[in-house]
Amino acid sequence: MKVAYFSPLPPERSGVADYSALLLPALARRVELVVPRRGHTRPPRGTDVALYHVGNDPEAHGWIVDALRRRPGVVVLHEFVLHHLVAGITVGRRDAAGYLDAMEREAGVVGRMLAHGVLDNRVPPVWETRPEDFPLAGEILARAEALVVHSRYVE
Predict the structure, then answer these.
(1) Consecutive H or E run containing 35
(2) What does the alpha-carbon distance between residue 139 and residue 30 come to, in Å, rounded to a whole number?
(3) Rg of the chain in Å (alpha carbons)
(4) Distance CA 155, CA 134 (A)
(5) Do residues 119 and 100 touch, judged by C-beta distance below 8 A?
(6) Are 62 and 88 in contact (CB under 8 A)?
(7) In angstroms, rounded to a whole number, what is the distance separating the alpha carbons of residues 126 and 93?
(8) For 25-46, what is each residue's pLDDT tens digit?
(9) Mind listing the domains of the chain with CATH numbers?
(10) What is the distance between the alpha carbons of residues 64 and 132, in angstroms, rounded to a whole number?
(11) Which residues sit opposite 2 in a β-bridge?
(12) Are 111 and 103 within 8 A, CB to CB?
């Protein structure tokens, strides 16, 4: 089996990068791995499955979400609350509509109204004040063909 392995890797300062550095040698003994370089979102040719490591840091994981959007696969969800990640890949990329849509998917019209308040600077950023109330994991879960978690809370 040939696996595309999307993850931050050392020397990036990330717990997920450290985790992957420990996991990759053992995994490589069992499957053929293709590890795309950071920022490469196109699925490698000839791979049977893509494995995406998703955490909450938009700098470390934004490109991985971009890759997942191109090709669904197995998601290793390192955190359930992904509000900071989603804010980073929407608001941080000047995609206000993406943030509004994410909040509406999470909490209906109330979520969309709250997001408008944040974007208009009338309400403090939800990712700083109450991200656990709006985890924004929905898109990631919808694109996952299978899900691996490390926490009973997430189960």
Answers:
(1) none
(2) 30
(3) 16
(4) 17
(5) yes
(6) yes
(7) 17
(8) 999 999 999 999 999 999 899 9
(9) 1-80+139-155 (3.40.50.10490), 81-136 (no CATH)
(10) 22
(11) 32
(12) yes
Q: Which residue has the tokens 């939800």?
A: 126
- Taking each helix axis from N to C terminus, what angle separates 58-70 and 15-28, rounded to the nearest 10 degrees? 50
pLDDT confidence of 150, banded at 50, 70, 90?
confident
Would you place residue 151 in the very low, low, confident or very high pLDDT band (cuts 50, 70, 90)? confident
- φ and ψ at residue 44, rounded to 5 degrees: -60, 140
Mean pLDDT, range 120-139, rounded to an integer: 97
How far apart CA 71 and CA 58 sit, in angstroms, is 19
The residue type found at 21 is A
Per the structure block, which two tokens stand in for 100?
Answer: 């509004």
Token look-up 């490698």 returns: 44
C-alpha distances in Å from residue 41, one per residue of 63, 119, 136: 7, 28, 21
Kindly report the number of other CB atoms within 10 A of residue 63's CB atom: 19
pLDDT digits (tens, 9 = 90+) for 86-129: 999 999 999 999 999 999 999 999 999 999 999 999 999 999 99
